[in-house]
Amino acid sequence: MARINLLPWREELRRERNQNFYITTIVLGVLGLGIVFLMNMQVNAQLQAQLQRNQYIKTEQAALEQKIIEIDRLKQERAELESRMRIIQDLQGNRSVVVRLFDEIAKKTPDGVFLKKIDRVGTRFKIEGVAEANNRISNMMRNLEQSPWFENANLESVVSDDSKTSNIFDLVVQEEAARKKEGDNDAS
């Protein structure tokens, strides 16, 4: 038989297969690195987007907290203003009642009785004055009891003046509760 040398052909085929293997390995390696690089970029992009969303949420949350603080401050101011308005309305409503009460005291004061001082604490009036006689003080007390504006007239003290021509007295009278409510309704 003739001698055929198949060795170089096998050697060349082996070299070609090795070369194809290395090229395929390199191409697959580069392709794998490319895929890893693209995945890394995608993950980083998603991470950056999430960080931006988180930052936006924190910024909006801080803005909302500021608005909540402002709303609480405005609510407090509103409550204070409403309180002041109620006080002013109460004063406005009671203004005419006080004038009526003092007018009633003046009307019920008989001749010969002179008032020196009138103090009001709540619904209680303390009247200090000078009278020419004890019966004039009694008349004033009866007049105040008959008034629709007062009740419970009570004489605290009567002292004779040094000249013995007049009597110094202290009288306490209560504003009538029913009349006070009616006066509040009249003013409203």
Summarize the structure.
The chain has 188 residues and is α+β, with helices and mostly antiparallel strands. 67% of the residues lie in helices and 20% in strands. The termini are far apart.
Account of the 3D structure:
- The protein is of the alpha+beta class and 188 residues long.
- The protein has a single domain, classed as General secretion pathway protein M, EpsM (Gyrase A, domain 2, 2-Layer Sandwich), CATH 3.30.1360.
- It contains three helices and four strands.
- Strands 1-2-4-3 form a four-stranded antiparallel beta sheet.
- Strand 3 and strand 4 form a beta hairpin.
- Helix 1 crosses helix 3.
- The longest helix is centred in the first third of the chain and has 102 residues.
Mean pLDDT: 85
Low-confidence parts:
178-183
CATH top level is Alpha Beta
Per the CATH scheme, the topology name is Gyrase A, domain 2
Give the second-level CATH assignment, the architecture: 2-Layer Sandwich
Characterize the overall form: rod-shaped
Estimate the helix proportion, in percent: 55-70%
Helix/sheet category? alpha+beta
Order of helices and strands: HEEHEEH
